[in-house]
Amino acid sequence: MFIGDVAYWKHWDTLKAIEEAVKANDYVRKDSVRFWWSEFHDQICLENEEKPKINQTEDDFFGDDFFDSDFEKASKRNCSEEKAFKQGLLLFLFANRKYVDDFRFNVTLEELREKGQEIFDSAAFEIKASRANFQHVQLKNTTIQNLAMEQIKASVESLDFGPDEAFKSPIAYSRMYFQWEANKLISSELVRNLSLTLTAVILVTLLLVAEVRVSALVVLCVAFTVTDVAGFAHFNGLTIEIVTSIILILSCGLALDYAAHVGVAYVTSDKSKREDRAKDALSHIGTAVIHGGSSTFFALLFLATSDSYIFTTFFAMFGMVIAFGLFHGLLFLPVMLSLIGPEVDEEVKLPPSNGTAITFINAEEFNPIKEDETET
C-alpha cells in the first residue's frame, strides 16, 4: 500500500482508516499488516511517560549528538504540527529501523548521516512516499485472486486525502497484481482469440480438404478436443490464466493435425462406399497419425519431472490434447464419416464422343481393353 507526497500531520483519520481497511479485508493475513503509522502514533505522538527503546548497538544514521537532549521530548510532541511531526518521525525511525525502507525522502541517508543535527533542527525535508506492508492469505485460484485484488483496491480508493492534496488516495500495489490484472482480462481475450483461431481453422480446412461435409466433421473434432481439454483442465485444478490460455490456443493447431490427415485420406480414397472409404483412410494414414501423436507425447515426457508450474501445466494440457486429438481423429471421425460422409457414385459418367448419346456403364465392369486384345 503506497502513499505519496501528502501532509501526513493533517490526515490522522485517513492514515488510521488505511490500516483498519487492510486489516478488515478477509483476504489479508491480519498478522502480516505492518504500517508505521500506528507505532509512530503510539510511541511519539501520545503523552507517553516511557520513551521508545533504541538499540544503541546499531550505527545510527542521524549522528550521535542530538538524541541525548531531544529524544526525551519525543513522547510529548504535538504531531499535528509539521515541524514536530517531522522531528518525531526522525526519532521514531531511529528507534525503529525496520521502518526506514518504508519511506522515501527528498534527502538521502548519506545526507542524514552527515547533516543529521541540522536536518533535525530545521525539519527541512519532505516525505515523498511511504508504504504499508501486508500479505494475502493463500488464494487458491485466479477467480479468488481477482476478487482479493479488487476488494483491497476498492477499500482504499474510497479513502481521500482531500482536495488540497495532489495525491488523492492510497494505491494498492504488488508485483503479483500485474499478473492478476492480466488474468482478470484473459477470459474475454481467450474467447476472442479462440474464435479467431477456429475461424482460421475452418477456412484452411475448407480450402485444403475441399469437401464441405468432411471439413465440417474435421472442425467439429477440433472443437470437441479443445472443449475436452478445457474441461479436464478445470477438474485438474487449473484455471484460466496466461499459461493455460496460450496452451488452449495452441491446442487448436495440434488437434487439427490428427483429424485433418484422416479427412484428406477419406476424400482421396478410391473407394465408393462410406464405410469402405473410412476403412481405407484409416489403413493408409492411421498408423502415421498414431506415430505422430506418440512422438509428440514422448517429446513432452521429460516436462513431467519438472517443478515449474509452466512446464507441468504444459505437459498436462498437451498430453490431454494428444489423447483427445487421437481419440477424435482415429475413432470419432472415421465413425462419423462411415455414417454421414460423402460417397462416390458407382456409375461413371462418360463424356460424349462424335455427337453420340451419353451412356452410363458400371465403373467396376468398365474395361476399355479386353484381356484377349492385350495378347500379341
What does the model show?
With 376 residues, the protein is mostly helical. Helices cover 57% and strands 5% of the residues. It is built from 12 helices and 6 strands. It has helices at residues 12-24, 36-45, 67-70, 82-95, 109-114, 116-122, 142-157, 175-209, 212-235, 242-267, 274-300, 309-340; strands at residues 2-3, 34-35, 103-105, 127-133, 347-349, 360-362. Strands 1, 2, 3 and 4 form a 4-stranded antiparallel sheet that branches. A two-stranded antiparallel ribbon has the order 5-6. The longest helix has 35 residues, at 175-209. Residues 48-75 and 355-361 have low confidence and may be disordered.
Q: Sheet with the most strands?
A: 4 strands, antiparallel
In what range is the share of β-strand residues?
A: 5-15%
Arithmetic mean pLDDT: 81
- The structure class reads mainly alpha
| Envelope shape | rod-shaped
CA gyration radius, whole angstroms: 37 Å
Number of strands: 6
